[in-house]
Amino acid sequence: MLNKDQFADNHFIRTIIEDDLQSGKHAAIQTRFPPEPNGYLHIGHAKSICLNFGLAYVFDGKCNLRFDDTNPEKENQEYVDSIKEDVQWLGFQWQGEPRYASDYFDQLFDYAVGLIQDGKAYVCDLTPEEMREYRGTLTEAGKNSPYRDRTPEENLDLFMKMRDGAFPDGSKTLRLKIDMASGNINMRDPVIYRIRRAHHHNTGDKWCIYPMYDYTHAISDAIENITHSLCTLEFEAHRPLYDWVLDNIPSPSQPRQYEFSRLELLYSITSKRKLNQLVSENHVSGWDDPRMPTISGMRRRGYTPEGLRLFAKRVGISKSENIVDMSVLEGAIREELEESAPRMMAVLNPLKITLTNFEAGKTQSRSAPYHPHHESMGEREIPISSTLYIEQDDFSENPPAGWQRLTVGGEVRLRYSYVIKCDEAVKDENGQIIELKCSIDHDTLGKKPEGRKVKGVIHWLSAEHAVPATVRLYDRLFTVERPDAVRGDDGEYLPFTDFINPESKQEITAWVEPVANTLQPESRWQFERLGYFVTDRKDHEVGKPIFNKTVGLKDGFQK
């Protein structure tokens, strides 16, 4: 459930909105989340979703979902569907039906005609290479296109022919006539239409000219009566163009653009092009691979909407650099799961224990709660038998100082059960320990042993009752903080794929409590003493459990 305390507060955009509402500039706010459907959404988009939808929620406004679908060659329906699913899974619902920039193509075309008629746009024949040459540099002004002084009548005739398919792809563009000497390169007669014969997922083959993002975005905001158009800081230099477009058309409204810093998550990447490369080159199993920073990947990993909303609140909104360590994300997920995930015991790397004095009828089982703080989650019986499994790491033949787990001659409590003592370690012909022979202190079920302290408590399973499960153990996908920012000896950037962690995924067969055989996909649990795990969204079946490791009980990746 959403509540207004779940969203970042005391940031500059909230202050602007509060002032605008108080002054009467706006009676209500209207935001939008405008992804391009050319890939799956990632953790940076999650921050933006929480900002745009969150502000609308906090101030009782509305938020549109609008697809920026002006680049048909890279867009498809799969991405549209995944984006809608991700937004709803995060807990949000857009106003009305999803919008598409392509819904406004007729209006965008009409506004372009008006700009041509007003002498503010012209058809240009420069090639992309020539256009770069004419554009100038950060320190040198550009120069006017030789086609800049065409008459409005000539430009309108050419633009209509562009629309009607009279010219080859890329042979002409429509440009705004602004200022080739502007200190802001974005204002040097930007292209607003190009010829591109490409099938569009929404408009089919109606158009062979497509509008550019800056032009489309400003007008789409105005058509939708957006009050606060929020985007990341790389668009700050585009704001003068955004305003110019709206000032030079009969704009239905006057939205304002505000920029905030984008999220940089260490040990990850948030470039859709590079994420696509990971998928297309089979470095991962798909956009929803649990190692991916995509929303669908994090969902499959077992992250929760509540945990991601908590993370978005903690990283905040500002104009300063927003570099966040992976431990902050994992900490938010861990904190949320601590309260919401029921417990079970699981043994990932089993070592056999034989209880030499087990007596059927005398050796008893106990029940244990599924969550220590939430009685409503219920209880289950923890059965015991003569053969147990414990973690191999919970036994040491030569324990270090302070060891509180099992060793020959030492005692430990089995969680929710008896104190046992290890009497013998059985080895195979290679000297590997394959079995422990232990004895139960039958007088310690639910009470402390007399005359001595037993500090250690370990988890375990009855071999007779445990069920097998496939467990996928995940680590960070990259071995360095900024995999796409490492330079070689020659000063050039090295391929980010050079830093993929070869140990980022391991699949094992483990033993788990019988309840695992009854679970539905996306059931999140804490394996006691081990971490948080989720039944896989795709591969898990009732009776054939497959768990993905979500996050450990504590940060295991500190430097």
TrEMBL record:
- GO BP terms, alphabetized: glutaminyl-tRNA aminoacylation; glutamyl-tRNA aminoacylation
Give the residue interval(s) assigned to the motif 'HIGH' region: 35-45
Domain (Glutamyl/glutaminyl-tRNA synthetase class Ib catalytic): give its ranges: 29-337
The GO cellular component terms are: cytosol
InterPro entries noted in UniProt = Gln-tRNA-synth, Gln/Glu-tRNA_Ligase, Gln_tRNA_ligase_bac, Glu/Gln-tRNA-synth, Glu/Gln-tRNA-synth_Ib_cat-dom, Glu/Gln-tRNA-synth_Ib_codon-bd, Glu_tRNA_lig_a-bdl, Rbsml_bL25/Gln-tRNA_synth_N
**So what does this thing catalyse?**
tRNA(Gln) + L-glutamine + ATP = L-glutaminyl-tRNA(Gln) + AMP + diphosphate
Residues forming the Glutamyl/glutaminyl-tRNA synthetase class Ib anti-codon binding domain are 341-441
Q: What is its main location?
A: cytoplasm
**Do the record's keywords include ATP-binding?**
yes
Q: What class of enzyme is it?
A: ligase
* Enzyme Commission (EC) number: 6.1.1.18
The protein's GO terms of the molecular function aspect are: ATP binding; glutamine-tRNA ligase activity
Q: Which PANTHER family match?
A: GLUTAMATE--TRNA LIGASE, GLUTAMINE-TRNA LIGASE
Q: Specify the protein name.
A: Glutamine--tRNA ligase
Gene label? glnS
